[in-house]
From TrEMBL:
InterPro entries attached to this UniProt entry: MazG-like_dom (IPR004518), NTP-PPase_MazG-like_C (IPR048011), NTP-PPase_MazG-like_N (IPR048015), NTP_PyrPHydrolase_MazG (IPR011551)
SUPFAM superfamilies linked to this entry: all-alpha NTP pyrophosphatases
Secretion signal, residue range per the UniProt entry: none
A single MF term (Gene Ontology): nucleoside triphosphate diphosphatase activity
Domain called NTP pyrophosphohydrolase MazG-like: residue spans: 42-112, 189-247
Organism the protein comes from: Kushneria sinocarnis
Gene3D superfamilies referenced in this protein's UniProt entry, alphabetically: MazG-like
Highest taxon of source: Bacteria
GO terms under biological process: dATP catabolic process; dGTP catabolic process; dTTP catabolic process; dUTP catabolic process; TTP catabolic process; UTP catabolic process
Protein name: ATP diphosphatase
Length: 298
């Protein structure tokens, strides 16, 4: 990476203004990049979603050395949209900063009591402020903002572009705010069992389209259960994906070490190897928790 240095040898760091200027040049019809000039609102959305997932992936892997680059890629998406807005005379990056700051000030009266950056809460440490009251005020303020935007439904403004699992979780949360919910996790758990039974019926009947619908209902019910258990379903599934990948690779390595191919193994052999890999993983995790040592029987 090229580094600019001042006369005294210090590295010159680029500023936000440099980034905004870079985007303006990239989008310049005469001097810019042909690819960037051709982009528009809709063409950038898939890249935005991809960059957001890459940020989440780096955090989950604790790859903090990669995180500045991934966050930079995500920020670049915001700069893109700001440039589109500026070119069309709708808004610019500074409008985005202003709206965000004003919104956060309004949503944090427990931090900025006068609604200004200069105002401060007096005499109460952050850890002494009740989290449940803060959350309630946050949700109340967001509801007020939806009313101010003439929202017609509790489900308005839930983005269609969210991953389906995350959107299901968000829809259920919105519905719960107006009382459309079970009192505790038991109702959600019973609904999971009910949807599973209904799915089995449609599978036995050979109704593919109805099976698809019932499977969707089952997934939605599971997200509701996750919400009652205060578990983020997207993160839970990502964790399962990671464990499955890690354990499957362990099975592949075990068969390769013996000169065998997975494709020629029986299901029983594959299952037995899977269980060995899983048990070894759990034992290693337990040993790490204990600081090493211990026997397999523990």
């Amino acid at each position: 990476m090229n580094e600019l240095r001042s006369d005294d040898g210090e590295i010159k760091r680029h500023r936000l203004e440099d980034l905004l200027k870079l985007m303006a040049v990239l989008r310049d019809p005469q001097y810019g990049c042909p690819w960037d000039v051709q982009q528009h609102w809709d063409s950038i959305v898939p890249h935005t979603l991809e960059e957001a997932h890459e940020v989440a992936d780096a955090i989950e892997r604790r790859a903090f050395d990669e995180l500045p680059g991934e966050l930079a890629d995500l920020l670049f998406q915001v700069v893109y949209y700001a440039r589109f807005g500026e070119e069309e005379g709708r808004f610019d990056f500074h409008d985005i900063v202003h709206v965000l700051t004003a919104k956060m000030l309004a949503r944090h009266p427990h931090v900025f009591p006068e609604g200004t950056l200069e105002s401060r809460r007096e005499g109460v440490a952050a850890e002494d402020v009740a989290t449940d009251r803060v959350h309630a005020r946050w949700e109340t303020r967001k509801a007020e903002e939806r009313v101010e935007r003439a929202a017609r439904s509790a489900l308005d403004d839930v983005p269609l572009a969210l991953p389906a699992l995350s959107r299901a979780n968000k829809l259920a949360r919105r519905a719960s705010r107006v009382g459309f919910d079970w009192p505790d996790y038991r109702g959600a758990l019973a609904k999971v069992r009910e949807e599973l039974d209904e799915l089995e019926v449609e599978i036995d009947r050979g109704h593919h389209s109805r099976s698809r619908d019932e499977l969707g209902d089952l997934l939605f019910a599971v997200t509701n259960l996750a919400r009652h258990l205060d578990i983020d379903p997207e993160q839970a599934l990502r964790g399962t994906n990671s464990r499955f990948e890690r354990r499957f690779r362990g099975v592949e390595e075990a068969f390769a070490a013996n000169g065998n191919a997975l494709s020629s193994a029986s299901l029983d052999d594959l299952e037995a190897c899977w269980q060995r890999v899983k048990q070894r993983e759990r034992h290693e995790a337990g040993s790490a928790d204990r600081g090493g040592g211990g026997s397999p029987a523990e």
